[in-house]
Amino acid sequence: MTELAESLLRGLGTGSVYALLALGFVIIYKATRVISFAQPAFMLAGAVLVTYLAGPVGFWVAVPVAAVLTAGLALGVERVAVRPMVGRPAFVVAIITLGVDVAVRVVVNGFIGLDVRHVGDPWGLRTVAVPGTAIDLQQRHLAALLATAVLIAGLFAFFRYTRMGLAMRAAAYDQEAALAQGVSVGAVFALSWGLAGGLAAVAGTFAAAGASVDAALWLIALTALPVIILGGLDSLPGAVVGGLAVGTIQELTASYQQHAPWLGGNVSVISPYVLMLLVLLVRPYGLFGTREVERV
Amino acid sequence: MTIAGRRTRPRGRPELHTSYASELALFDTRGKRVAVAGLLAVALCLPFLLTDEWLQLLALCCVAAIGAIGLGLVTGYAGQVSLGHAFFLAVGAYTAAAISGDPDGRVIGFGVTNIAVWLPAAGLLAGLAGILVAPLATRLRGLYLAIVTLGLVFIGQHVFSEWSALTGGAGVGRPAATLEFFGQPIAATGPLGTRDQKLYWLMLLLLLGFALAAANLARSKVGRAFTAIRDRDIAAGVIGVNLARYKTIAFAVSSAYAGCAGALLYTITGFFDPGSFSLLLSVQYIAMVLIGGAGTISGAIAGAFFITLLPRFTRELQAWVPFLSAQPNEVPNVFQVETILYGVLLVVFLIFEPRGLFGIWVRVRNYWKTWPFSY
Q1: pLDDT tens by residue, A38-72
Q2: What's the sign of the alpha-carbon dihedral A289, B132, A226, A104?
Q3: Is the pLDDT of residue A115 over 80?
């Protein structure tokens, strides 16, 4: 029982990292109808920035600064590589972001170098006991969950109550109609990429908390892809629910995989993809995605 | 086809087609026939001019081109984005290696080293894997499909690195298929030529066969159904193209090409491990198709040669750019430049020349066609 509860809580912790990443994907998708394969690079860039900044200015300042800087990087990429492609097939733009990802990651990997880098988080692998039970909860997972909750609340408030949030919702609904109403769709594109970059940086920091930053960190960001397919490409709540679900499933598989040794070690790494395939067989547009209406 | 094309065409008017056969002919003008024959002659004579190192590289290019043509069929012609090409390459490579492997070795092997057995078997099994994936492809479209095929690469990588009885395990690997044709070893220096000369000729002839087959498929009923699906799948369904059937065919044929390419790819280097079949390999093949020119056979071949030769040229770059290092543990080094170039070239081509190398060729050709009136 304790083991089950502990893996569930661990799952929510890693799941919140996936949720943050998936939110970035979905925000970009809603604004531009494109999946940005550049998210892994932004996540790695954010985490590496934190490792450099945490020393001089401290962890708590480093994270927001890194998020802003990564958002700036994402803005630049959007302006140079993606904006010229407005109106071209989504697949072509997606492949462009794939190219951007490969190029940016090599540069970022150059800054990681050969030594192990740490984000300098205050939690490490320390645990805190849940009152009244024997369950140990890792502090970094609690922190990730709380940070994600705060960020999600902020995002939903932003989309609900601000002019720009309204503009983004309008542009996501119908770009031409939004343009006709005076919404600057270009600004919406830029902002969505900036938001996604910032979220990826925070996610990268939490993914590396208690561990180290290395070149393989970007694989975590790829796990956000089954998450968004699971939740539905254009659903913000779907991204959050999907992220938490995938995190939980992954941790449960990791805890109980010794009962199925024929699956091989590390089967938890691919469990999100298997889950995605199973869900897609039943619901081709994910759990919360809108069914595409096609006119000939 | 070409004979018919010649007969029904008035001289000196290459654009005028008076029969369906002449319109569809593969080499419809004299210029094309002469150019292709010349190119082929040069390609066949190359082993007498180049060193073995270059021949090996060109043999690799030919095999990569077979794989790229396969991906071009499903992504360029049928418009189904597949990031899972590395998985099908792996299926082919392991089928071939297992069939021709040493029965007493440390990994699975059946000891049938004849290429006439393991090459078709690799194609067949990879094609079957493609058919198994196809039901998902017929339900999903566009980016959903891209991500699902990406999942395939990860699941495949896990299976192959865990199944060490077949693959030798991660980081260890196993020997590739043996090149032998009815008792005649191909990959050995003999009276006919050195190992690399023979390898190159073999791969060139295989590429020729596969390219012709793909070109013929593309101009048949099946090929027309593919392009109809790519251009507007709903409209294609409405005019009577059986979407599920043709998407399945596209995936099966593409995977079979990938399987054959995978089987041949590692015979050149002789050894491979499950880590090779990563997402990066899929991205390289996507890059070949898109940089070469999506929806053309010659474009896929050009793209494959371009991407495969790229590392060789970036290594040459080191002589010109003094601050680049050839050591992988120093920054900046040529390996980083190479990877960045994949990404940057992909972006630059898609933004500035969406039709790829083939598009550049078309532009050059049209300039001279209308010369001196070049606009």
Answers
A1: 999 999 999 999 999 988 888 889 999 999 999 99
A2: negative
A3: no
Chain A CA closest to residue B286: A95
Local structure of B278: helix, strand or coil: coil
CB contact under 8 A, B354 and A98: no
pLDDT tier, B163 (very low <50, low <70, confident <90, very high otherwise): confident
CA-wise closest residue to A30 among A231, A220, A201: A231
Q: What is the mean pLDDT of residues B84-113?
A: 88
Q: Does A75 touch chain B (CB under 8 A)?
A: no
With the CA atoms of A155, A160, A163 and A168 taken in that order, what torsion angle do they form, in degrees rounded to the nearest 10? 70
ipTM here: 0.85
User: d(Cα B78, Cα B37) in Å, to the nearest integer?
Assistant: 29
Q: Tell me: pLDDT of B318 over 80.
A: no
Q: Under a CB-based contact definition with an 8 Å cutoff, are residues B129 and B196 in contact?
A: no
CA distances from A256 to A137, A138, A267, A296, B63 (A): 18, 19, 10, 49, 43
Residue A7 has pLDDT above 90, yes or no: no
pLDDT on residue A256: 83
Contact A205, A63 (CB under 8 A): yes
For B102-135, how does the pLDDT look when each residue is reduced to its tens digit (9 = 90+)? 888 788 888 788 888 999 999 999 999 999 988 8
Using one digit for the tens of pLDDT, what is the confidence trace for B11-55? 667 678 888 887 888 887 788 889 899 999 999 998 888 888 899
In this structure, of A256-270, B220-234, B357-371, the range with the lowest mean pLDDT score is A256-270
**Interchain contact B215–A (C-beta under 8 A):** no
Residue B346: closest C-alpha in chain A:
A99
b/e code A182-201 from CB counts within 10 Å (16+ = b):
ebebeebbbbbbbbbbbbbb
CB B178, CB B113: distance < 8 Å: yes
Give chain B positions within 8 Å (CB) of A99.
287, 342-347, 350
Burial letters A127-149, b for 16+ CB under 10 A, else e: beeeeeeebebbbbbbbbbebbe
**The token pair that represents B193 in the structure block:** 């030529």
Nearest to A280 by CA among B51, B119, B143: B143
Q: What is each CA distance from A254 to A240, A251, A261, B171, in whole angstroms?
A: 21, 5, 12, 23
Nearest CB partner across the interface for B235, out of A98, A226, A296 = A296
Provide mean pLDDT across the span B289-302. 91
- pLDDT exceeds cutoff 60 at B6: no
At residue B1, the pLDDT reads 42
Q: Residue A186: enclosing H or E segment and its boundaries?
A: helix A185-208
Q: Evaluate whether B81 touches B145 at the Cβ level (below 8 Å).
A: yes
A144 to chain B, any CB pair closer than 8 A? The answer is no
Determine the Cα–Cα distance for residues A200 and A269; give it in Å rounded to an integer. 20
- The position carrying tokens 């397919």 is A229
Instruction: Provide φ and ψ at A235, rounded to 5°.
Output: -120, 115
Q: Which of A99, A106, A222 shows the shortest C-beta gap to B346? A: A99
* Rounded CA separation A281/B289 (Å): 29
